[in-house]
Amino acid sequence: MTTEPQRSRRSPGLLAAAAVAVVLGGLAFLVLDVVVAAFVGIVLVVVAVMAVLASDWDQHATFEEREQQRALKRKSKWEKNADARERDRRRWEAHQARQARGSDDR
Questions:
Q1: Does the pTM exceed 0.70?
Q2: Percentage helix, strand, coil, to 5, in the chain?
């Protein structure tokens, strides 16, 4: 992940935009027809939600960082299961030896 310091959850710009949206929505209901004001209010709410969702758009790990984490996880899992793989390999070789001895008897 990124090593930048964490920002606060609420940025001043988003709070100001929300306040402006509330004021504009209220003014729309006072000045405009109810149906038109409802449309304006819905548009303002959608824009505000999009702004909140997009506020941390670039605060994510890069593809390379995610792949590095996955590679480390795979490597640790591979190392953890090394003894089981060795045991399975020995069992397979013993099985192959038994099969070879069995075919020699025929």
A1: no
A2: 80, 0, 20
